[in-house]
């Protein structure tokens, strides 16, 4: 399955970003850029590599010829990049994009997520960062460490990110986790990843290794983590791999 766009988080503190258009149209973009620490400049700035342009196709063309990446407001067909709707739980940032085709849908999703994600989520992220040394000492093996952290952060886990964990001993919560190896087998109903059950999708997303039959479509396998080991095999795997193995076969 091809990504429409590759999401990136760009640090703009102190960097020039071109802004072109009538002030009424670009004022929200100016506020967003200034909030990110960018230096808003005009079209002629020689060092800018990003630009946001409203209602000026000629400026879009000029900037593109210079190699500047352009966001053309309300013109997704002219955009090199788009600006997502943002849920800010600093340092956690959730960005929702639709490729520029529906700002309303992105905004609606942002509003739903604002109600779901606790205000303390950023503090949990900072606590996880502070606990890195202790967690590394408890789990010297990288695979064991990642699985223990994943177990703590899973739905219903000791550090479920949808709950409030202010003041929690993060290192101790992760140390209580288990890293037992196991095999789960799933049989998708079709080759369409949208037909995966919630449980199947969660298993794929959590798997350390995915074994699969030759007829399993890439769109299904793409639901696994990018760093999960993928292995094509015709026989069921043996339970000799640390962590979670998901074996996929088609109906």
Describe the structure.
This protein is an alpha/beta fold. The chain folds into 4 domains: 1-83, 3-Layer(aba) Sandwich (Rossmann fold), CATH 3.40.50.720; 84-117, 2-Layer Sandwich (Double Stranded RNA Binding Domain); 121-175, no CATH class; 182-248, no CATH class. 33% of the residues lie in helices and 18% in strands. The chain is built from 9 helices and 10 strands. It has a 4-stranded parallel beta sheet, sandwiched between helices. A 4-stranded parallel beta sheet has the order 7-10-8-9, with helices on one face. Helix 2 links the parallel strand 3 (50-53) and strand 4. The protein is globular, with a radius of gyration of 22 Å. The mean pLDDT is 91.
Strand-helix topology:
Layout: E1 16-20, H1 23-35, E2 39-41, E3 50-53, H2 57-65, E4 69-72, E5 85-89, E6 92-96, H3 103-116, H4 121-130, H5 132-138, H6 142-153, H7 170-175, E7 182-186, H8 198-206, E8 209-212, H9 218-221, E9 229-232, E10 244-248
Parallel strand pairs: 1-2, 1-3, 3-4, 7-10, 8-9, 8-10
Antiparallel strand pairs: 5-6
